[in-house]
UniProtKB/TrEMBL annotation:
Protein name: Threonylcarbamoyl-AMP synthase
PANTHER family named in the record: SUA5 (PTHR17490), THREONYLCARBAMOYL-AMP SYNTHASE (PTHR17490:SF16)
Family: Belongs to the SUA5 family.
Species, as recorded: Bacillus canaveralius
UniProt domain YrdC-like: residue ranges: 18-205
Catalytic reaction equation(s): L-threonine + hydrogencarbonate + ATP = L-threonylcarbamoyladenylate + diphosphate + H2O
Role according to the record: Required for the formation of a threonylcarbamoyl group on adenosine at position 37 (t(6)A37) in tRNAs that read codons beginning with adenine.
Length: 348
């Protein structure tokens, strides 16, 4: 398949009238799939009303069919056609966070949207992305746009058009390059169908920020306990993994260095994922600094790029520091634990 590539400056005005946006929107209306930037990660968009378009998304990504897609909208009114009522707390969250990195799960109006997009569920996850290119594109189509992350299933999500190109070139109709994304981890998913909102996936909007708006929320118990089945179907899959096995290490820098030394003595190539502060401390075959230790937003923003960078280093094993679970640090640790297949080594 021929994959078109458009470069778009997100700061220009009247984006909706840009030829690149018009061309991409026209393809979406023809039920083709196109990747576009959002403030969290790049999304792979398709018409959420069309089984044909949605099937192309799953096919291009190699995504399991039981993992529902997030529906992206550009105006709140778009909800009316497919959501069965907006609960009070959901309304408060929409007013506060949209556009932004918060996905809200609603009850769906029966018969609306492609059943493939929602994996046959009676609920639907929706968000309004905070990115001028995404908003212009969605507005131009006038459609609800189903858009999972634009990566090959299982790989780290894409935070640049180059990542999308690496994973999906030749498999999708186009890529809009709008520069690097900002937040760097996916949206927070919150289920508002019950009396108390439940966070199903930590992400760009933090628990602290959410509770400041709607009061106490619950966390899906599956987030803390691997034995419990998650309420969000996608959360059960291994994800974000670099090519070499990754281990999280809780302990001192000396302890982590010792783990590296042991592997290297065996003739293996070992990498370490650390922060800017500690890069100079470690001796390994690759030492990558990901943001700054006490600024979780900076770690989130470069996490996936760093995980992808390891793949170019041809390593046998990677050790990662753990990060404080403060603010977006909660999402960072959730993604890292998944990338590591839950392997955590603790210093005695
Ligand atoms: P992604 O598009 O790759 O960011 O993944 C979307 C996430 O939203 C996955 O974890 C899905 O399981 C979750 N999700 C989508 N729709 C629903 C829904 N109706 N109920 C619960 N979780 C959902
Ligand atoms: Mg994804």
């Amino acid at each position: 398949m021929d994959t078109k590539f458009w470069s778009v400056d997100k700061f220009v005005t009247n984006l909706e009238d840009y030829p690149q946006i018009s061309e991409a929107a026209a393809l979406l209306k023809e039920n083709e799939v196109v990747a576009f930037p959002t403030e969290t990660v790049y999304g792979l968009g398709g018409n959420a009303d069309s089984d044909t378009a949605v099937a192309k998304i799953f096919e291009a990504k190699g995504r399991p069919a039981d993992n529902p897609l997030i529906i992206h909208i550009a105006k709140k009114e778009q909800l009316d056609s497919f959501v069965d009522g907006v609960p009070e707390k959901a309304g408060m969250l929409m007013d506060h966070f949209w556009p932004g990195p918060l996905t809200i799960v609603f009850n769906k109006k029966a018969g609306q949207l492609s059943a493939k997009a929602t994996a046959g569920l009676s609920t639907v996850a929706v968000r309004m992305p905070d990115h001028p290119v995404a908003l212009a594109l969605i507005k131009k189509t006038g459609l609800p746009i189903a858009a999972p992350s634009a990566n090959q299933s299982g790989k780290p999500s894409p935070t640049s058009a180059q990542h999308v190109h690496d994973d999906l070139y030749g498999r999708i109709s186009g890529i809009i390059d709008g520069g690097a994304t900002g937040v760097g981890v996916e949206s927070t998913v919150i289920d508002c169908t019950g009396p108390v909102p439940v966070i199903l996936r930590p992400g760009g909007a933090t628990v602290e920020q959410i509770e400041a708006v709607v009061g106490k929320v619950q966390l899906d118990p599956a987030l803390a306990d691997q034995e419990i089945a998650p309420k969000s179907p996608g959360m059960k899959y291994q994800h974000y993994a670099p090519n070499a096995p990754l281990y999280l290490v809780e302990g001192s820098r000396d302890f982590l260095q010792e783990l590296i030394n042991e592997k290297r003595k065996l003739g293996l190539k070992a990498g370490v994922l650390t922060t800017e502060e500690n890069v100079a401390f470690f001796q390994a075959d690759a030492v990558l600094g990901c943001g700054s230790r006490d600024k979780p937003e900076t770690v989130a923003s470069s996490l996936y790029d760093t995980l992808r960078e390891f793949n170019a280093k041809d390593l046998d094993v990677i050790f990662s520091e753990v990060f404080p679970r403060i603010g977006v640090g909660e999402a960072v640790m959730n993604r890292l634990m998944k990338a590591a297949g839950q392997r955590l080594i603790k210093e005695e």
